[in-house]
Structure prediction request, 199 residues.
Amino acid sequence: MTETITARLLIIGPPGAGKGTQASRIAERYGVPTISTGDIFRANIRGGTELGRRVQAVIEAGELVPDSLTNEIVEDRLAQPDAANGFLLDGYPRTVDQVHALDGMIGGASLDAVVLLEADTEEVVARLLKRAELEGRADDTEAVIRHRQEVYAEQTAPLVELFSERGILVAVDGLGSVEEVAERIASGLDARLAAPTGR
Ligand code: B4P
Prediction:
């Protein structure tokens, strides 16, 4: 089902929780483009662009790309016509500074809903080690995977409280099959977007 409402959405959660996997399903359901900062960076690394050269070492070490650079990229992307009627952000914002930058970009309008995909550390590490076997991503070695979890706990987890205070958080259990998780997200988001305070 493709909805025709405007939806400004974000999916957040620890590395390996299934954000990228679920993002395409959410985007299709609500008819909005997905904006994944991780995908943008990886495409630039693959393409050998100036941006790719600037971020490659940072990403391979499991660190975050500097806020100023990441904010600039998202601002450019949000200005594209296909994002005018809504979007799904995947992996951005990841720091408190990025939240403030995004608030400025969307003119103080709040996001409509934030999906928090929850999964415990050992489960997500196991998923990413499996992905490493299949895809060989440079930031999917065990040491870097564990470091990315620490970076999430320090810099990104505090955002959950902030979105909860704004009343837009939809927390979803990320364990189970991809389809089961997708159904939980769809029912949580539908309820959130239909709520009088949710628009
Ligand atoms: P991301 O691309 O966002 O990478 P990620 O957090 O590892 O999540 P990803 O979406 O790839 O994995 P998913 O959980 O879907 O970021 C990569 C790097 O880019 C960051 O470390 C940082 O350096 C940089 N970066 C990105 N955004 C930034 C920002 N805003 N600021 C600064 N730096 C930024 O899936 C993981 C695996 O689980 C997959 O293999 C999938 O098949 C599997 N899976 C999914 N659902 C499952 C299920 N239900 N059961 C079993 N397996 C499942």
Remarks:
- Residues 7-194 form a domain with the Rossmann fold fold (CATH 3.40.50.300).
- The chain has one domain: 7-194.
- Residues 15-21, 37-38, 41, 58-59, 62-65, 70, 91-92, 94, 98, 127-128, 131, 139, 148, 177-178, 181 surround BIS(adenosine)-5'-tetraphosphate (CB under 6 Å).
